[in-house]
UniProtKB/TrEMBL annotation:
Residues 161-378 form the NFD4 C-terminal domain. This is Uncharacterized protein. Residues 16-68 form the Nodulin-like domain. The keyword Transmembrane helix applies. Pfam families: NFD4_C, Nodulin-like. SUPFAM superfamilies: MFS general substrate transporter. InterPro entries: MFS_trans_sf, NFD4_C, Nodulin-like. Its main location: membrane. Gene3D superfamilies: MFS general substrate transporter like domains (1.20.1250.20). GO terms for cellular component: membrane. It is found in: Membrane. It is a multi-pass membrane protein. Keywords: Membrane, Transmembrane, Transmembrane helix.
Length: 408
């Protein structure tokens, strides 16, 4: 009994459901970057930063920064809140235990069944004559090393870096996700320039975070269903998501009264929806052998786009308009010059028109990637994984047959 309990505990800790549960806990504490817009105004006013300098701080902000608001609880309120938090943590864990128990039971049943598979013998063939070839040149070795395998196979890091498909995906991520990050990081200054109160700005940040989660869940389920039923390429769904962000950027650019509530929903949903589509495309197109490295490679694309569009475009244009409104005086910096805040639609109009155009270009690049990969997605994307699973099952069956022969 104790041995079975230990085996089940080890199965749970190594199981995929427990990994999913752990990832939920990590993501639940990883929302610090989305509230940058709430306190960015205080950073700018206290340190005398220009908008370009503030956007540079936003570029370098880390996940899990020491931010937020401290709430004062009484002893009873703290106990109630602790009970609620524990309940929220333990309720999903019951799902983990239930699913892992079902998997553990099915594994035990599969091990108790011995399947003997007979394979017809093929006639022996004479070994082919060995033909001596001249030593390969350095250039031919380089060409062989860079030649990409078929889509879906395991790419090396070098093959992925020089792949046209990876270049298209990286470019679309830089300019598509960079625009949404710019909107998220500047939401505080956007709301201030358009005359929204601080409470509304906090609401915008909350809407972005909530719809970010909903976008991740919706795009994951929707793209998988479209792929299974219609063989729709996942990059095509990504292109649709990028195009959906265009109305949000245009609403910021033209400063439609009251539109930032809708904009926050659009930007948050599309930002969340694009993330799983990009990462799923990487794993499906380039394999899982070097997925962690390729994951980090695509992860750097969003900050690169944020730096270009947020710091170099939005920040500079904001400072230029603020200086014009301040009578041509230089915008304040940490050196002690007078601080000028930009007010009005013109603060972000030009920059978000640029971001809109760039996002449309990113969607066009993603459409090119969808066209290039349409043949791959028309087949069975998971065929290779099914073959590997059959090989593992066959190996387990052979081991079971050998064990039964030894006992007999």
């Amino acid at each position: 009994m104790a041995a079975a309990a230990r085996a089940f505990a080890a199965h749970v800790l190594r199981g995929r459901w427990f990994m999913a549960y752990g990832s939920f806990l990590i993501m639940s504490a990883a929302g610090a970057t989305y509230i940058f817009a709430v306190y960015s105004k205080d950073i700018k006013a206290t340190l005398g930063y220009t908008q370009e300098q503030l956007n540079t701080v936003g570029f370098f902000k880390d996940v899990g920064a020491n931010v937020g608001k401290r709430f004062l609880f009484t002893r009873a309120e703290f106990g109630v809140s602790a009970a609620v938090v524990l309940a929220m943590l333990l309720v999903p864990f019951t799902v983990v235990l239930r699913e892992e128990a079902a998997l553990f039971k099915s594994t035990l049943e599969a091990q108790s069944v011995v399947t003997v598979a007979t394979k017809p013998r093929t006639p022996a063939q004479e070994p082919a004559a060995v033909v001596e070839r001249p030593a390969a040149t350095l250039m031919s070795r380089v060409v062989r090393a860079l030649r990409p395998p078929p889509l879906g196979d395991d790419y090396t890091i070098l093959q992925a870096l020089v792949s046209v498909d990876m270049l298209l995906l990286f470019t679309a991520t830089v300019f598509g996700m960079g625009g949404t990050l710019t909107a998220i990081d500047n939401m505080g200054q956007i709301g201030e320039s358009l005359g929204y109160p601080q409470r509304s700005i906090a609401t915008f940040v909350s809407l972005i975070s909530i719809w970010n989660y909903l976008g991740r869940v919706a795009s994951g389920f929707a793209s998988e269903a479209l792929l299974a039923r219609y063989r729709l390429p996942r990059p095509l769904v990504l292109a649709v998501v990028l195009l959906l962000t265009v109305p949000g950027h245009l609403l910021i650019s033209f400063g439609v009264p009251g539109s930032l509530y809708v904009t926050s929903v659009i930007i948050g949903f599309c930002f969340g929806a694009a993330q799983p589509l990009i990462l799923a495309s990487v794993s499906e197109l380039f394999g899982l052998r070097y997925y962690s490295t390729l994951y980090n490679l695509c992860g750097t694309a969003s900050p690169v786009g944020s730096y270009v569009l947020n710091v170099r475009v939005a920040g500079r244009m904001y400072d230029r308009e603020a200086a014009r409104q301040g009578g041509g005086h230089a915008v304040a910096s940490a050196s002690g010059k007078r601080l000028v805040t930009c007010i009005g639609v013109r603060c972000y109009k030009e920059s978000f028109l640029v971001i809109t155009a760039v996002t449309v270009a990113a969607a066009a690049v993603t459409l090119v990637l969808a066209w290039r990969t349409r043949g791959f997605y028309a087949g069975d994307v998971y065929a290779r994984f099914k073959e590997e699973e059959e090989v593992v099952v066959a190996g387990q069956s052979r081991n079971g047959v050998a064990a039964s022969e030894m006992t007999s």
